[in-house]
Amino acid sequence: MIVVVAALLALLSLPCAVAVVACADGLPGRRLWTRRERQRNRALRRLDRRLGAGGAFAAPPVPGPGVEELAADLRRLGRQRRGGPTVESAAWLAAVVRAYDHRLSLASEALGLPHHLTALDGMDRDLERLRVEEELHAAGVRLR
Fold first, then answer.
1. What b/e string do you get for 33-59 counting C-beta neighbours within 10 Å, with b at 16 or more?
2. Could you tell me the pTM of the whole model?
3. How many CB atoms lie under 10 A from the CB of residue 91?
4. Going by fewer Cβ within 10 Å, which terminus of the chain is more open, N or C?
5. Separation of alpha carbons 8 and 15, rounded Å
6. Which residues contact 60 (CB under 8 A, 6 or more apart)?
7. Angle (nearest 5°) at CA 26 between 36 and 35
């Protein structure tokens, strides 16, 4: 009877023993990972304390999109403005034109060019849009 019970216990505990042996190689890595996490958490706590105590830290400036990214957005929005599904929906077309004007103003500000897109409406805004496009083209930004 003792032999049968021992054999059953061995069969039942065999998968657990195999799992422990198979996973044993990851234990030192886990210890190292938790040690690194503890060190990182300590450094973050120290930084929080210094910031809370009025430390001389300034938030890093958030850079805007680059001129090439703006030019790519302007090309995409220009295609949508001239054709496609935006022509059929007035609300969609207005949203695309607003986004196009916003990107135009960002691009001209990035290059230091003057613009008055936000202050104008109607035909005046259309003419200003053409003027800004020409200035960007003269500055080397390819819009089409």
1. eeeeeeeeeeeeeeeeeeeeeeeeeee
2. 0.55
3. 8
4. N
5. 12
6. none
7. 15
Whole-number CA gyration radius for the chain: 32
Q: Where are the domains of the chain?
A: 2-52, 67-138
128: left (phi over 0), alpha (psi -120 to 50) or beta: alpha
3-state helix, strand, coil in the chain (%, to 5): 75, 0, 25
